[in-house]
Amino acid sequence: MPSVLMDGFGRKIDYVRLSVTDRCDFRCIYCMAENMTFLPRQSILSLEEIERCAKLFVANGVRKIRLTGGEPLTRKGIISLCEKISAIPGLDELVMTTNGSQLTKYAQSLADAGVKRLNISLDSLCPDKFKTMTRTGELQQVLDGIQAARRAGFQRVKINSVIIQGHNDEEILALTDYAVDNQLDITFIEEMPLGHVGRSRDASLFSSDKVRDNIAKHYALLDSSENSGGPARYMRLKDYSHTRIGFISPHTHNFCSTCNRVRLTVEGKLLLCLGNEHSLDMLNLLRDHPTDDAPVLAQVQQALHNKPEEHHFSAEGEVQIVRFMNASGG
Ligand code: SAM
Ligand code: SF4
Fold first, then answer.
1. Any bridge partners for residue 200, and if so which?
2. Ligand with the closest atom to the CA of 26
3. Where are the domains of the chain?
4. Beta strand segments in 101-255, E
5. What value does the mean pLDDT take over residues 171-198?
């Protein structure tokens, strides 16, 4: 019998998000504070350690790996890491989440390295608003990156939009139109209260139901039971079969009962739940047992019994988790 990873509630863990860096060229207002201190290079996992973890997880039933961060394309050696991970026997899909700023340079190499799907963050189509939300980003660079990704031959390219009342809630329709016109999927995300980002989140929660209602004024939406192996719920557009509309609703539609995933931060912490602090220090385990995976696996299996049943984000959006999203591996 092949080994599988199971948590204390009988949920099979077959999806791992690996954060390859906490650094980023953007400073999105929901993800980071304006001034951030990043991890010193000596306290992050090496590319070889990340690959070792990927192999260990896949040998124990993980079928999907997402590379994320921080901005994964800022990590030196990322393309060769993708080549190595995508070649691990037993892995069904290697996918990546990126802010798109460097895709004109890297999209084709990523596709050639075996990355099957890309999620690209895009919160606004207005250059000024885009700059305000990312603090440093240039919209045109990301739009060019999205077109490069379309040409590169990924199985799917999906837009991720975090909707924040008073910032980009007026753009829900424009973002949907953009996805439709470019035959892309789009997922709307409710902001999670991770880290002190230097602004109050109290009044800015914009629920997925409100997003859906906005879209429904202009498009005929159809229910769908589709699942891409993550937390999103999907709907289809009646007249535009190329675009799926997804909703990630950590506040209003808790998705914990079907949770199949864990995250490994670039510090080597195995986070058992995005909304809780439970974790296992894998960095020291890996370094204490450089050639033997068995003790590492035993600790991972043990830790999974501490995976919480669910997260509880407060409706007010106040911070309960001090970790920033860039450090968690979104
Ligand atoms: N830098 C890449 C990017 O932006 O796509 C990958 C890392 S980012 C942390 C991954 C995803 O998390 C992005 O889609 C981003 O919009 C989302 N995200 C970041 N902070 C968030 C928060 N506080 N609540 C909800 N989503 C968040
Ligand atoms: Fe960077 Fe992504 Fe966080 Fe924005 S959401 S600051 S692009 S890691």
1. none
2. 2
3. 5-327
4. 115-121, 156-163, 185-190, 221-223, 233-237, 240-248
5. 93
Taking 3-state DSSP, the helix, strand and coil percentages for the chain, each rounded to the nearest 5, stand at 30, 20, 45
Q: Is 68 in contact with 97 (CB distance < 8 Å)?
A: yes
Q: Please compute the mean of the pLDDT values over residues 223-252 and round it to a whole number.
A: 90
Query: What pTM was estimated for this model as a whole?
Result: 0.94
Give per-residue pLDDT as tens, 98-135.
Answer: 999 999 999 999 999 999 999 999 999 999 999 999 99
Which pLDDT score is estimated for 294?
97
- Residue 3: how many other CB atoms lie within 10 Å: 10
Is a pLDDT exceeding 60 seen at residue 317? Answer: no
CA separation for the pair 289, 34 (Å, rounded):
38
CA 327 to ligand 2 center in whole angstroms: 10
- Give the amino acid at 177: D
Task: Compute CA 265 distance to the chain's CA centroid, rounded to the nearest angstrom.
Answer: 12
C-alpha of residue 181 to centroid of ligand 1, in Å: 24
Q: Note whether 192 and 313 are within 8 A (CB).
A: yes
> What's the chain's length in residues?
330
- Residue 85 near residue 34, CB atoms below 8 Å: no
DSSP β-ladder status, 240-248 and 233-237: antiparallel
**Is pLDDT of 1 > 80?**
no
| Atom 23 (ligand 1) nearest CA | 192
Are the C-beta atoms of residues 188 and 161 closer than 8 Å to each other? yes
CATH code of domain 5-327: 3.20.20.70
Residue 318: the pLDDT is 55
The ligand that comes nearest to the alpha carbon of residue 70 is: 2
94/226 Cα distance (integer angstroms): 19
